[in-house]
Specification:
Length: 191
């Protein structure tokens, strides 16, 4: 596992599960058990990203379909996670795998992605201090993480496990879906 001492940028992949299932269709459990068999179109408006390091699309590079442009320093960590439009309440998304395509013509922009989990006490909404008998449980947060290697553009593939709900409201696996995007890193000055 990559250490926690480096600076980290977080990227969220938000998916409109209902819209994706309507357009791409549900994959059968047999069809989708081990590998994604359906693609989410690269230009689909049903998937958006937000990031703590994402640049505002002020130039043509940042406005290209699925061109995600971030500013970071070499050695920074990029942590990626996914949620549904309902924040995994009505439907859910799990980032099952994250792949950065190796470049033969140049140095990779990011290292290989690895799963990472961190335990942290969640922020409580109360302004009151906890009573002596109250206990806050630690929550575990999961990401796919890679190290920024340098500037450039690299093709990435997110494998998304989508879940909808059955008639009793229980989560139901809807299939594995692949979403491709280009990650562009622009190196920024050390702060």
């Amino acid at each position: 596992m990559i250490g926690c001492s480096a600076r980290a940028a977080y990227m969220c992949i938000a998916v409109d599960v209902e819209a994706v299932l309507q357009v791409a269709g549900k994959a059968s459990a047999v069809e989708s058990a081990n590998a994604p068999t359906r693609h989410i179109a690269a230009k689909s408006a049903d998937v958006i990203t937000t990031s703590t390091a994402q640049l505002h699309p002020t130039d043509i590079t940042a406005r290209l379909p699925r061109a995600i442009v971030i500013a970071a320093q070499a050695g920074d960590l990029l942590r990626i996670y996914a949620v549904s439009g309902s924040n995994n309440f009505e439907s859910a998304v799990l980032l099952a795998d994250m792949l950065a395509q190796t470049r033969s013509d140049a140095v990779d922009v990011v290292s290989a992605f690895e799963p990472a989990a961190f335990e942290q006490i969640p922020v409580t909404p109360s302004a009151e201090p906890l009573a002596s008998g109250d206990v806050c449980a630690e929550a575990e947060f999961w990401f796919w993480q890679a190290t920024i290697e340098g500037a450039g553009t690299q093709q990435c593939h997110a494998v998304l496990a989508l879940y909808d709900r059955d008639d009793q409201g229980q989560p139901r696996f809807a299939g594995l879906y692949r979403w491709d995007f280009k990650l562009t890193v622009r190196l920024k000055e050390a702060s």
